[in-house]
Amino acid sequence: MAMLIATPALANDAPDLVELKRLVHQDCGSCHGLTLKGGLGPDIRPQTIEHYDPDVLTGVILDGIEGTAMPPWRPLITEEEAIWIADYLLKGE
Ligand code: HEC
Q1: What does the pLDDT read at residue 50?
Q2: Ligand 1: nearest atom to the Cα of 24
């Protein structure tokens, strides 16, 4: 039964939180560090990005930051997933 087979989170409508956390720490982490405290990309822990409005942060995730290594994630994740990630980053767990 296809419905019972786990499909990748990024293909589903509802965000799969386990998969999204993995994406944040592995994929975002490849530049921002596994614990998000910075690497090639800056520290994006809650205390350093607290000035961000959640909508603006969602936009940064979806569209990247032009002229920098921060890539747009719109091709890979849904808007709903980006909203979840922004919220996750601001709350830090
Ligand atoms: C290829 C490397 C790379 C990847 C992968 C990456 N980023 Fe970035 N990110 C950067 C760089 C470099 C910057 C700094 C851009 C600048 O100079 O303003 C940045 C900036 C940011 C900022 C703004 C930080 C600030 O203080 O203004 C946020 C938020 C952010 N990234 C979140 C994410 C998230 C969430 C993901 C995963 C969905 C991600 N990034 C994946 C390289 C990356």
Answers
A1: 96
A2: 37
